[in-house]
Amino acid sequence: MIASYMATAQPVYYFGWQGGEPTLMGLEFFLKVTELQKKYGRRGVAVSNGLQTNATLIDDEMAAHFSKYRFLVGVSIDGPGEIHDRYRVHSAGRGSHADVLRGIDCLKRHNVEFNALVLVSSANVTRAKELYHYLRDLGIYYHQYIPCVEFDNNGQPLIFTISAKQWGDFLCDIFDEWIKWDTRRVSIRWFDSIISYLVEGRFTVCQMEQNCCQYFLIEYNGDIYPCDFFVRPELKVGNIWDASWPELLQSQIYSDFGAQKAQWHKECDNCEDLPYCSGDCLKHRLFHGTKHPRQLSWLCHGYKRFFQRALPGLRNLADTIKKERFEARMQGGRLDSSSKIGRNEPCPCGSGSKYKKCCGRLTH
Ligand code: SF4
Ligand code: SF4
Exactly one of 59, 60, 152, 228 is catalytic; which is it? Predict the structure, then answer.
């Protein structure tokens, strides 16, 4: 997989290691990953490794390796112990929170860049402000909040699924805390994506895009699917052993899947939030009710409430950032950390390297 991907021409080679739990592969696996990336990467190319983990198996050796190769690690943590341990338990039933904190300490000790992924479920959806401050107090300044929306085979919501109203209230509560104190200190992935769109015309999360041809999900046996929520036999795009990248990109299955994103509900056509929502993730449209892409998202009304509350503030912030960038360009100076270029976005100097690893100078 690494050899064939790195034989294609890309500005940056992005690898996202997810499971299940990817650290179950052990340090040996990740030593081999970076060895192969060095072997197959042409001189000077930029490689980005992201890893999503529950952090319970991270030890000093593994953290040192992630630090050395600047992996960006996402740690799943759903809040303080009494919240986190409600659903995130070891196979024996014991809560995993204490082990997650041990893993986080390890990452901190080795200066590994990491962010928190919070699954927003029925266990924590009413406690947004508490969650936000909990993460901040732990010294975590990059937050991802993911709505838990799961259905049974009959399309009925499972017990941990949240409602649209709950999701809207949650996002508004987080936004209210963030906008008051932390716009230049805490990065919320969802808000950053909207700001990126307002400033640079591109989103950084796939849910907001109009097409779901965003990446390939590669399973342990090499089978390839269009999205990690849609690993289904009928959506298998190919296998890494016998499919070339051009073939994969041109796959009819892949393009048909991606096109469903823009086949949204008729209410979306007249929705003023459509430019930011694009009908929402297919997962929230295809797994319940009629199971058709033209069905309204399960979370629609929550998003509407959030956009109504947050867009004016986000637009103001975007205008300020544009002004700062303009002034910096006039002065030929380096952008400071408050100018809100994402850490993994290309440096404005045009080098092709990530902002965090480069000079941050604007080109003239
Ligand atoms: S289905 Fe959802 S998660 Fe998958 S690519 Fe589309 S928007 Fe992204
Ligand atoms: S907020 Fe609702 S109606 Fe508007 S684009 Fe999103 S899903 Fe469609």
Answer: 228
